[in-house]
Write a structure and sequence with these properties.
alpha+beta; Uridine Diphospho-n-acetylenolpyruvylglucosamine Reductase, domain 3; Enolase-like, domain 1; 31% helix; binds flavin-adenine dinucleotide
């Protein structure tokens, strides 16, 4: 019989994970769907479940010299209300599910689910987010792209929890997020785009692009971005097609029930081009 454990604090949760194998459940908005049963009975969980949404140590947003530290179990809706959460991340939160779901869904759940279409992953990649993982043995901190290795695949060990998401302080003059979905709310992205740039006196000091749902993980290519840094805005506009040519082979979407690969690639490239066109 499946056991359901609700630890009272983080150390008790880590102890359980150290001693036995559990499936961690946060808001459950992915897991409940993945394990749903259709006969109006509770979800068909096939593993012992460890409920962590209410752990007090994991629900916080702190502004530190290292960056913004978001506790793994902070509900998405709380992030929308917090003055220190970057505007770009808030724009993305507003397009994730609907308000009811956002009161329980978490960033850690979006990361743990590791869907190529996970909306929060796109700005987290763009903003160089770091993920703090904790077990009884201690903590390790990894860049988000080292945590997610493929669709529904992560390097999170069975005895570890995502503890915090760290977003370094950064300054941009331009940011943009676009999610293309079937409808405005409660839609999984067909393609998503986030761009950020810092342009000072006509020179590009920082330039970043992240794309979701067009590869096995979110795409971000620092080599392409580096070719732009230090160049003038007019250089960037003149070389727009070269940049699109550089991104084109990286964009390798699939056909599925939501869209097809030709449409996804076309839209992804149009969004990059549009972002460059809008820079001034
Ligand atoms: C109607 C509906 C609409 C949705 N709309 C969107 C949308 O627009 N955009 C979008 O991206 N997603 C959407 N989702 C999916 C889901 O809401 C998000 O992925 C959400 O962020 C998951 O968070 P959660 O806390 O509910 O995760 P859970 O379902 O609890 O967990 C998801 C995975 O993460 C793991 N996990 C959770 N917390 C931790 C932790 N601290 N440490 C280690 N592993 C952990 C779990 O073991 C599990 O594998 C939608 C879901 C529904 C049902």
């Amino acid at each position: 019989m499946v056991r359901h454990i609700i630890p009272k604090d983080l150390s008790e949760a880590l102890k359980h994970l150290d001693e036995n194998t559990f499936r961690v459940i946060a808001g459950g908005t992915d897991l409940m769907i993945q394990k749903r049963s259709w006969a109006e009975t509770p979800p068909a969980f096939d593993q012992d479940m460890l409920y962590i949404l209410n752990l007090p140590e994991l629900n916080h947003v702190n502004h530190t010299s290292d960056g913004l530290i978001i506790g793994a179990m902070t509900p998405l809706e709380d992030l929308l209300d917090h003055p220190d959460v970057p505007k770009l991340l808030k724009e993305v939160m507003l397009e994730m599910a609907g308000p009811g779901l956002r009161y329980v869904a978490t960033l850690a759940g979006n990361i743990g689910n590791a869907s190529p279409a996970g909306d929060s992953l796109v700005p987290l990649y763009l903003m160089d987010a770091r993920i703090v993982l904790e077990s009884l043995a201690g903590q390790r901190t990894l860049p988000i792209e080292a945590v997610i290795t493929g669709p529904r695949q992560t390097v999170i060990r069975p005895n570890e929890l995502i503890r915090d998401i760290v977003i370094p302080h950064q300054q941009f003059t331009h940011t943009r997020f676009i999610k293309v979905g079937t409808r405005k709310a409660d839609a999984i992205a067909k393609v998503s785009f986030a761009g950020a740039a810092l342009i000072e006196q006509g020179v590009t000091q920082d330039f970043r692009i992240a794309l979701g749902a067009v590869y096995q993980t979110v795409i971000r290519d620092r080599d392409i971005e580096d070719t732009v840094v230090g160049k003038t805005l007019s250089w960037l506009k003149t070389h727009k097609q070269d940049l699109l040519d550089a991104y084109e082979p990286l964009i390798q979407p699939i056909d599925d029930q939501r869209s097809n690969k030709i449409y996804r690639k076309h839209v992804a490239l149009r969004m990059i081009g549009d972002f460059i066109d809008r820079l001034e």
